């Protein structure tokens, strides 16, 4: 795993059974010899957050110093900026309606087509951070109101990316 090469798609999915859904996604990944990583778009500070988590996780695997036993979990740990797997799983799928960043690493012809059986790919952007999402991000990443006021309300995504990068420091 020298360099990250991923397709990142936006999708929606109704998930009634998380375990069955993940088994289906894993089977598709295995068929195409790729990794499929799913992020809850409502906990991500945009696509740059997704890319940053992917890059850090790939780097830790390339260096032989991953925290997790799987690349998928390693990416979620970086997305969450934590070493705690239970916390990181919150950044993946959940029961009910999901807005997802769906990453196929490396890209694999046919994987997206098979994933379309369990999710609907969309063109809409998920990157905007409204007040409700800002509150979720502040809670998830321990960002205080004072900290946000010091850098500016419009820079919350940068604070999230800083938390992702700090995971390397806290190893």
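Sequence proposed for the structure above (171 residues):
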């Amino acid at each position: 795993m020298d360099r990250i090469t991923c397709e990142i798609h936006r999708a929606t999915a109704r998930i009634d059974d998380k375990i069955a859904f993940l088994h289906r996604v894993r089977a598709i990944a295995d068929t195409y010899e790729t990794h499929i990583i799913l992020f809850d778009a409502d906990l991500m500070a945009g696509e740059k957050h997704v890319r940053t988590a992917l890059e850090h996780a790939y780097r830790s695997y390339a260096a032989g110093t991953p925290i997790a036993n799987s690349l998928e979990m390693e990416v979620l740990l970086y997305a969450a900026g934590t070493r705690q797997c239970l916390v990181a799983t919150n950044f993946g799928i959940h029961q009910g309606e999901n807005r997802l960043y769906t990453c196929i690493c490396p890209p694999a012809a046919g994987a997206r087509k098979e994933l379309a059986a369990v999710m609907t790919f969309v063109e809409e952007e998920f990157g905007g951070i409204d007040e409700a999402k800002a509150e979720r991000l502040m809670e998830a990443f321990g960002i205080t109101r004072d900290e946000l006021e010091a850098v500016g309300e419009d820079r919350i995504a940068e604070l999230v990316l800083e938390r992702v990068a700090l995971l390397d420091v806290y190893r």
